[in-house]
Automatic annotation (TrEMBL):
Belongs to the major facilitator superfamily. It is a multi-pass membrane protein. SUPFAM superfamilies: MFS general substrate transporter. This is MFS transporter. It is found in: Cell membrane.
Length: 397
């Protein structure tokens, strides 16, 4: 059984990803508030997710080059600096003409950060990488658990969402000071060639299946993050502040799921654990969707988050496993699936909510869970077939 060794560098990587999680999970409850603030439809407000999708694509394209050119440590810290600048701009500027492009720009920084983090953990921990990646995502969701609560508090207090989001600046500042004081430095890493006229091996069919799995389940997570609060307001009569705080239940479930899942991943086969997570998500959605009692709906969100917790960590770990000699490129290409998740999931769900109501629109979620299960079954077959191994001949980039 693999053993996970957590040194200072590993803890720093966890905290850096946690800072990004603070923004990502905190921004979800802000989107409905931006809709109300700008007096636009849910579909128009959902364009923030489209902007984040575009940012994911750009970030995935440039991440390998930046990691190779500047090293993982410098690229990750520079990305966090970009996140700080964008958060300040979010708070200072008003109007969709500012918030939409800012959503894309901050996601570029986030994707570079995620790519460096995942590749670094995969290289540093070897066979225990699935557990390390899961724990890093637990740190992200742990930070994300706090963000909606803080934003909900500032909204309920009448100060709006901006002071809550600005608290991230202090979080990143403290993290940088602690790393400097204890002299914890991230290794540059041995990265592969980024985009350019170089020759490299294809990632392969098994990687493609894992990639699609990330896109499908990522759409569920992104859609819930943006529009679950809307359903709680419309169907269950919760206030805007209370609904924003209720989203913390999803993140709490994801934190618990990843905390426990990191240990289970050292003992249980990844695909079996992934299928169990899908079943848990389906059960949580059934509770959330069928009830009209706020407390029960929040409990359903908690269970839903518990299942969602392992979707991304297992899928990205499997993607890196089937592309063992190209960790940075595999992690960067995976960001394109995140771009589709950010773009398609919330946008389709928001448009469907405008047409048929938010409650019926959420029936998209069980369909996506079924699709993810079918993809996982196909991936299991592909991983035991020789065709799952990438061809030995190099091909043009």
């Amino acid at each position: 059984m693999p053993h996970l060794l957590r040194d200072r560098v590993t803890w720093l990587i966890y905290a850096q990803l946690g800072a990004w999680g603070y923004f990502l999970y905190g921004f979800g409850p802000i989107v409905p508030l931006l809709r109300d603030e700008n007096q636009v439809s849910s579909a128009v407000a959902g364009l923030h997710s489209t902007a984040m999708a575009a940012g994911s694509m750009i970030g995935g394209a440039i991440a390998p080059y930046l990691l190779r050119r500047f090293g993982r440590g410098h690229a990750i810290w520079a990305s966090l600096g970009g996140v700080v600048a964008c958060v300040v701009a979010f708070a200072a500027l008003h109007g969709l003409e500012y918030t939409l492009p800012l959503a894309g720009i901050i996601t570029i920084f986030g994707i570079v950060l995620i790519t460096g983090v995942v590749a670094a953990l995969n290289e540093r921990h070897g066979a225990a990488a699935p557990a390390a990646i899961t724990e890093a995502n637990a740190a992200a969701t742990g930070a994300g658990l706090i963000a909606p609560f803080v934003i909900g508090l500032t909204v309920s207090a009448g100060a709006g969402w901006r002071p809550g989001l600005l608290s991230l600046v202090a979080v990143i500042g403290v993290l940088a000071l602690v790393a400097f004081a204890f002299r914890v430095r991230l290794p540059a890493g041995e990265v592969v060639a980024g985009p350019g006229p170089r020759r490299r091996r294809p990632l392969g069919r098994a990687y493609q299946l894992a990639w699609i799995m990330m896109a499908v389940t990522g759409s569920i997570e992104a859609g819930l993050s943006l529009w679950a609060a809307d359903l709680l307001r419309d169907r269950d009569g919760m206030s805007a502040g209370a609904a924003a705080q209720a989203i913390s239940a999803i993140v709490a479930g994801m934190f618990l799921g990843r905390f426990v899942g990191a240990r289970l991943s050292l003992r249980i086969a990844p695909l079996r654990l992934y299928l169990a997570a899908l079943i848990t998500s389906a059960a949580g959605f059934a509770v959330f969707w069928t009830t009209m009692t706020p407390a029960v709906a929040v409990a359903g969100l908690l269970l839903l988050g518990l299942g969602n917790a392992m979707h991304y960590p297992i899928a990205i770990a499997l993607a890196l496993r089937v592309a063992p000699d190209q960790p940075d490129r595999a992690a960067a290409v995976a960001s394109y699936s995140m771009g589709i998740s950010f773009g398609a999931g919330p946008l389709v769900l928001g448009a469907a909510a405008d047409l048929i109501g938010v409650r019926l629109a959420f029936l998209i979620v069980p369909l996506l869970l079924i699709a993810a299960g079918a993809l996982a079954w196909r991936l299991g077959r592909a991983m035991v077939q020789p065709a799952a191994v990438p061809a030995l001949e190099p091909q043009p980039a």
